[in-house]
Amino acid sequence: MDNNPPNPQLDPKIADLERRLRLALRHQPAPAGLRTRVLAQAQIRRTSQHGRTWIFQRLAASLVLAAVFAGLVAWRQAEERRKGEAAREQVLTALRITSHALKNAGTRINDSSNDDSH
Amino acid sequence: MKPVHVFSTLLALALAAPVAALAQDQLPTPSPIEKSLADRAEHTTEVTLDRNMLAFAAKFMDSKDKDQAAVSDMLKGLQGVYVREYQFAKEHSYTTDDIDGLRKYFESSDWSPMVKERTKGVATGTDVFVKLVNGQMQGLFVLDAEDKELSLVLILGPIDIEHLSQLGGNFGIPKDAVKKAEKKVTK
Question: Are A87 and B53 an interchain contact pair (Cβ–Cβ within 8 Å)?
Answer without folding.
Answer: yes
